[in-house]
Amino acid sequence: MKLPRCLHALPFLALAALALAGLSPPAAAEGLDKVTVGGWSQPISEITNLLAEPDHGLFKARGIALDYVPGNGGGSAIQAVLAGQADIAFTDPASFYLALDKGADLVAVYDIYPQNVFNVVSPKSRGIRTIADLKGKRVGVYSLASGTRQHLLLLLATAGLKETDVTVEVTGLLNFAPLIQGQVDATAATDTGLLVGRAKGLGEVDVIEVRDHLNLPSDIFVVTRKDYEARKPLLKRFLAAYRDSAAWMIARPDEAARLAVTRAINGRDEAINREVIRLRNLSSVSPTTEREGLGHFDLPVLQQGADTFRRLGLVARALDMGQVVKTDLIPVRESAASPAKEGTP
């Protein structure tokens, strides 16, 4: 399926937006260490805590010049790191498992969103109430390298189905138009995608939540093992700054929603920004983060995910999360430099 013409322009719009935002000042001139995040997405409102760096300066406060490379799915974020185009991947566990299965030497260092936010959405008229009902249907995904596709495969496998049992259509990031127009029967998306879709006229829908089958974290930070070993002090500062920015967005959602109007490419509506940010703040916390602080992993859940992917045939190798999940760089909960008290959004 061809993407609408407007979507082809998104990468260029994103780069222009980032240039205006001034995310990456001349690092050497200011005595800062540049860290480039390989994103899974364009600069959208749910990552306002990153995009608002020119406003809150939390990365600069820790000696970091933040840069962001837009992506087209969690797999593309990992590829950016492996290709040397980014220092750290903003990716999903499914893409992490698949990369490890192919032999990539990677480690996960921070749990960005411990709650799973992926889903499959379909108009009630399609009668898709269960995963089995997807057989023979046309299903949209953000991209073939996206977490939406990987989690669709996970859902299909739990019902004994394969990707060939459905017709996968690439519809683009947060794009519910093909679903609304009947070009696909269902779309693999996220909670924020569904929110945007409803705001654009999506009617009554049935939603199959991935978390009801496996509450795998939605996104994690991943680096090469080589960088993990060689750049620990810098990565530790970056993760502390990211934690600070996540705590800022939890504590100040209204401010974040206002800043997203100019910082995010999809942020024109402040009210929608506020709801997107509310959802993303909710996904940033869990019982584990309540005990240990933002960014901490629930290792048994990640291991369960890896074991499930192998059992369902989505990966071929046994993956030991104890060997590829590193927690020593995650900032401690009681940080004097934190700009806002960590709490419940």
Automatic annotation (TrEMBL):
Q: Does the keyword Zinc apply?
A: no
The major lineage groups are: Bacteria, Pseudomonadati, Pseudomonadota, Alphaproteobacteria, Hyphomicrobiales
Assembly description: Homodimer.
Query: What's the name of the protein?
Result: Thiamine pyrimidine synthase
Instruction: Show the GO MF annotations.
Output: metal ion binding; transferase activity
Gene behind this protein: tauA
Concerning InterPro entries, the annotation shows:
NMT1/THI5 (IPR027939), SsuA/THI5 (IPR015168)
Alphabetized, the UniProt keywords read: Iron, Metal-binding, Pyridoxal phosphate, Signal, Thiamine biosynthesis, Transferase
Role played: Responsible for the formation of the pyrimidine heterocycle in the thiamine biosynthesis pathway. Catalyzes the formation of hydroxymethylpyrimidine phosphate (HMP-P) from histidine and pyridoxal phosphate (PLP). The protein uses PLP and the active site histidine to form HMP-P, generating an inactive enzyme. The enzyme can only undergo a single turnover, which suggests it is a suicide enzyme.
The GO annotation for biological process reads: thiamine biosynthetic process
Q: In which pathway does it act?
A: Cofactor biosynthesis; thiamine diphosphate biosynthesis
- Similarity-based family: Belongs to the NMT1/THI5 family.
PANTHER family in alphabetical order: 4-AMINO-5-HYDROXYMETHYL-2-METHYLPYRIMIDINE PHOSPHATE SYNTHASE THI11-RELATED (PTHR31528:SF1)
At the top level, the lineage of the source is: Bacteria
Q: Which reaction does it catalyse?
A: N(6)-(pyridoxal phosphate)-L-lysyl-[4-amino-5-hydroxymethyl-2-methylpyrimidine phosphate synthase] + L-histidyl-[4-amino-5-hydroxymethyl-2-methylpyrimidine phosphate synthase] + 2 Fe(3+) + 4 H2O = L-lysyl-[4-amino-5-hydroxymethyl-2-methylpyrimidine phosphate synthase] + (2S)-2-amino-5-hydroxy-4-oxopentanoyl-[4-amino-5-hydroxymethyl-2-methylpyrimidine phosphate synthase] + 4-amino-2-methyl-5-(phosphooxymethyl)pyrimidine + 3-oxopropanoate + 2 Fe(2+) + 2 H(+)
What span is annotated as the signal peptide, if there is one? 1-29
Location of the SsuA/THI5-like domain = 46-256
